[in-house]
């Protein structure tokens, strides 16, 4: 790999964007210690003691950070919610590293070519044909959602939306 960024802590092979303020910085720091060749750019109100972790309280260049990072890390700790940045990573065709919890398993099952658990190797370069497969994954999920919405009665769809992501994740477990 070529060096793509030089930071105060040294030279790095890759940049990971960690945009979720809901993620405890300690969990990112643990992952960063195991991946010293990666510079982690994280949303946090405090500084990190790790040389390869840079924190910011707010990202004015959020879209640019998503576009330029090599992969995204969203260690979303909530059991009954979903993460917008996780879906943004998939939509931006960025590899996504998530925790192996209920939400992470849902994402891995739904987007198996794009989502990785921390112990897995994250591919930093696209594999041949991965873009077409990625597009097929997203189109399949969207089509499934559209068909469900179309076939469902308006009242049922409204009830599901009102109950939010918890029901979606519970359905995934069964």
- Strand tally is 8
Q: Tell me, what's the shape? A: globular
Order of helices and strands: EEEHEEHEHEHEHHH
Q: How much of the polypeptide forms β-strand, as a percent range?
A: 15-25%
Structure class? alpha/beta
Oligomer classification: single chain
Count of separate DSSP helical elements: 7
Major β-sheet annotation = 6 strands, parallel
Low-confidence stretches: 1-7, 144-165
Task: Look at the structure and give the mean pLDDT.
Answer: 75
Radius of gyration: 17 Å
Estimated helix fraction? 40-55%
Q: State the separation between the terminal residues, measured CA to CA.
A: 42 Å
Strand order of the largest sheet: 5-4-3-6-7-8
Fold blueprint:
Layout: E1 5-7, E2 10-12, E3 14-18, H1 25-33, E4 38-43, E5 53-56, H2 62-68, E6 71-74, H3 84-91, E7 96-98, H4 102-110, E8 115-116, H5 130-151, H6 154-163, H7 165-173
Parallel strand pairs: 3-4, 3-6, 4-5, 6-7, 7-8
Antiparallel strand pairs: 1-2
């Amino acid at each position: 790999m070529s060096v793509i960024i030089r930071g105060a802590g040294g030279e790095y092979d890759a940049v990971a964007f960690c945009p979720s303020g809901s993620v405890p910085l300690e969990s990112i720091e643990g992952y960063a210690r195991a991946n010293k060749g990666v510079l982690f750019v994280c949303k946090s109100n405090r500084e990190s003691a790790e040389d390869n972790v840079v924190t910011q309280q707010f990202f004015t260049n959020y879209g640019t950070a998503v576009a330029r990072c090599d992969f995204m890390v969203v260690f979303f700790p909530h059991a009954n919610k979903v993460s917008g940045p996780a879906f943004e990573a998939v939509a931006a065709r960025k590899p996504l590293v998530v925790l192996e919890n209920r939400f992470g398993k849902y994402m891995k099952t739904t987007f198996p070519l794009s989502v990785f658990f921390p112990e897995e190797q994250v591919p930093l370069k696209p594999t041949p044909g991965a873009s077409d497969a990625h597009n097929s994954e997203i189109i399949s999920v969207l089509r499934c959602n559209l068909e469900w919405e179309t076939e469902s009665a308006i009242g049922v769809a409204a009830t599901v939306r009102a109950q939010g992501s918890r029901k979606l994740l519970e359905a995934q477990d069964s």
